[in-house]
Amino acid sequence: MTTDQNVDLTPTPTPTSTSSAGIDPIRVDVWSDIACPWCYIGKRKFERALTETGIPVEIEYHAYELAPDLPEEFEGSEQDYLEIRGFTADQVQPLLARIVAAAKAVGLDFDYDILRHTNMLKGHQLIRWAKAEGRQLDMVERILAAHFEEGRHVGQDKDLAELAAEIGLDREKALSALEEGRYADDVRADEARARQLGIQSVPFYVFENAYGVAGAQDPATFADILRQLAEKKREASQ
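Structure tokens predicted for DSBA oxidoreductase:
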């Protein structure tokens, strides 16, 4: 698990008044883990900023595993998992309460009583496969909801292929890709790139291959960044 962090952006964005009309989409690369609650919360906050600004973006998700050593079948509660990750017993419930409240504030209903921990390598492979099918963003949303709100297993081939089918993709094609490990190298490449960039926690947003922002920032922060970058694009096009 990771925690929400302060913004790390150079230069610091300032609010601007700009029109998005006629500008190319802003490139946004997001390093994220299915197991990270702040990644889902941050996703909702970023979506609010997009709605507020109306600025076009081109988003691509990249894999990051917070617990690559976790088995496919983890036997234990959320308390057990967090203690393994280094939290003390008396820290767990206040932490979960804060996460659940933050999720609820953006319209998400996290249920840690039914959440099932698992190794996320296969889940990330599914997201990469869905990207090749033109449905990466839909797959990211579906798998996060399945994990945090529905208690679904997101570490097994058949369960993941079923999630693919639920967004209209071909179940058998998804299953075949997962069983073959066809996108495992893509996941590893994402993680290697994260190390090159010095990314040590998620969510982490890279705007226009130049500006890095760590954590589930407030929508206003994301909106300010988008407006600044849109203004730069507008000025460059003149």
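The two ends are 44 Å apart (CA to CA).
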